[in-house]
Amino acid sequence: MKLPANYFDVFFEKGKRIHLLVFLALLILLVFVLSISRNGRYAPGAFMSYGWVIACVYTGRWLCRNWLLTGQWVGLVMMLIVALIGLGGLGLGVYIYFFEPNLPLNHIIESGINSTVVTFLLLFGGFFLAVIRSAIREKMNGLILAEQKKGSELSLLRSQVSPHFLFNTLNNMYSLSINRPNQMPALLLKLSELLRYSVYDADQPLVQLKDELDYIRNYIDLETIRSADRLSLNVSLPDAPAGLKIAPMLLVVFVENAFKHSRNTLESEIQIGINCKIVNDHIYFDVTNSYSENGAKDRTDKRNSGFGIANVIKRLDLLYPGEYTLNQTHTENRFKVELSLKVN
After folding, report:
1. 223 contacts: CB under 8 Å, gap ≥ 6
2. What is the per-residue pLDDT across 23-73, written as a single tens digit (0 to 9) for each?
3. 3-state DSSP assignment of residue 87
4. What is the residue extent of each domain of the chain?
5. Does domain 180-342 have CATH number 3.40.30.10?
6. Maximal CA-CA distance, the chain
7. What is the pLDDT of residues 216-236, one digit of tens each?
């Protein structure tokens, strides 16, 4: 009969390799002990005892997997009794035949009891190993499912970032095309740079903090074109050290939110402050903007109000659990967001 091409790969898969290594380790230990004792008379009995121990442990493992873990208690008790009688009797027979062939009857009864106790302990050892392995496997499966769920949620959230940004930018372009058509070329150039980052770089799990800050600078330039006549802007964005990374499109959402809501104020001057400070592996980022609950709001802003920040909070919870603090405060005319984030 021809074996399938992957027969040996299947036979020596990870779990079976571990069992094989344990068998070999115990066998080597047994040979080592026999070589030290230099008494070949006990070698056959020692090898038979080795096989008996393995049989007891794996019988216990088999009973656990097929009856204990499935809750079949009646079948478990019956099979356990059969295993104790069969393996206990086998252990007694090995002991008498190889080690004590002339054992008196009263000692045979005592040895039978001892053999049954040892058999029970070995079966229990098999039970224990099977339960531990089942618990570890269940834990690992739970972690894998949680990681897959986390990845799916992140993919969904990332897929929402670029459309949300593009939606707001197209609104900007529409307004400028009517009021300041001569500024459209510069706007389109900035839009091209922003879209390149949001479409290609933002698809990565992490990006260089330097690239994220450059993206924010480009976004500020784009928004400045639209709001130059009313804007009072105070920006402090340092040069990020090389190697410091962050999840993409996190910080810019706060900047986008500031421009969007500050334009709705009735004040003649829009005030926005954007500050970033980097200390070792911590980012301290805050954005302040003009704010008015009774300001002029269009229907588009009302429908999408709060979407961006809610998205960011979900991403922070998934990517940086316990490693960030986010505070949002607002007065009658000012709104401020402060983020402290530990990055790698």
Report:
1. 172, 259
2. 677 777 767 666 666 666 667 777 888 888 888 888 888 888 887 777 788
3. helix
4. 7-141, 180-342
5. no
6. 113
7. 998 888 777 766 677 888 999
